[in-house]
Amino acid sequence: MRRPPRPPFPLSAPEWPGGIPQPVPKERLGVAYDTAWARREPVRALRALFLDGVTRPLVGVVATPTISGADRLDGLEAPIVFAANHQSHVDTPVVLSCLPERLRHRTVVGAGADYFFDRQWKAVLWAGLLGAVPIERNKVGRRSAELTRQLLEDGWNLVIFPEGGRTPDGWGQPFKGGAAYLSARTGAPVVPVHLDGTRAVLARHEKRVHRSPVRVTFGTALRPHEGEDPRHFNTRLQAAVAALADEAATDWWSARRRAAAGETPPLTGPELPAWRRAWEVSRPATGRREPTSGASDTPRWPKGF
């Protein structure tokens, strides 16, 4: 069947002259999205109003967060990297809501470029409301690494989720090295943060938000030791978040004792079949591990594990 003739310009797109190479279209989304507009004064003022007037009250109603370790932030000044475990999409507003005001309004959030910046409306929404900046989740990308490094050097705090994505089963995932790398490059301290209960508010693949209590535990700021490899520092950071999880599940003294003895339960949970991992993490109190009775006070898995 013969195709109808093409409408003339401007009713259709113009034809590119033959023999002349076409320029490659400039990337505008994903990791290439320019978020500089979201850090200008008018947008920052609107974001501060939204965070204090809308986000924090909503978080207070839905999650009623209990904050532990807030005193560990005393004396810390920007720039700071806040590295938290990742259970839910509500993790970001919860962390921002729990930061002291002196830090809260000078903080940006590392967000997956492939998820939060894959559409123009999403990029504008998250950059504007949360101060999100695009980062590559599966590797330490040069563009996102340079952007976050520059922001830290300019005095911005950064919230980052080193797992690279929300937990699929309630247990933590191995940390990627972004937070450790940025600390080593900029000298900014890393504050480990543990979130407990946000998965009960909004789990992965869930559409409905549920009211449920949340606990946010801030740890002592960490810095890389002289000559320390970023990979080793990343291991220390993951261990620090695991110790905060233990602290949330039991108490500060017991968690410190286990951390000193190298007996902290791993953040990633037991190496067991998926259904048994799911069973353990779904126990009451948002999957917290209850200590055994006795002198050792060491957390255990249920009988049969």
Task: Describe the fold and architecture.
This protein has a single domain, classed as 3-Layer(aba) Sandwich (Glycerol-3-phosphate (1)-acyltransferase). The chain starts with 40 loop residues before the first helix and ends in an 18-residue tail after the last helix. The protein has helices spanning 41-62, 91-98, 101-104, 113-116, 120-130, 142-153, 178-186, 198-201, 230-249, 252-260, 274-281, 284-287, and strands spanning 66-68, 81-84, 107-112, 132-135, 157-160, 190-196, 215-218. A 7-stranded mixed beta sheet has the order 1-7-6-2-5-3-4, sandwiched between helices. The chain has 12 helices and 7 strands. The chain is 38% helix and 10% strand. Mean pLDDT is 85; it is low at 284-305. The protein is globular, with a radius of gyration of 23 Å. It is an alpha/beta fold.
How can the largest sheet be summarized?
7 strands, mixed
CATH class: Alpha Beta
Count of separate DSSP helical elements: 12
The CATH superfamily is known as Glycerol-3-phosphate (1)-acyltransferase
Number of domains: 1
Query: Roughly how many Å apart are the termini?
Result: 69 Å
Helix-strand category:
alpha/beta
> Which oligomeric form is depicted?
single chain
Task: Give the neighbour order of strands across the main sheet.
Answer: 1-7-6-2-5-3-4
Order of helices and strands: HEEHHEHHEHEHEHEHHHH
Total number of strands: 7
Could you name the ranges where pLDDT drops below 50 across 5 or more consecutive residues?
284-305
What level of helicity do the residues show?
25-40%
The value of Rg in angstroms is 23 Å
Q: Which word captures the global form? A: globular
**What share of the residues does DSSP label as strand, in percent?**
5-15%
Indicate the CATH topology.
Glycerol-3-phosphate (1)-acyltransferase
Task: Based on the coordinates given, report the CATH architecture.
Answer: 3-Layer(aba) Sandwich
Mean pLDDT: 85
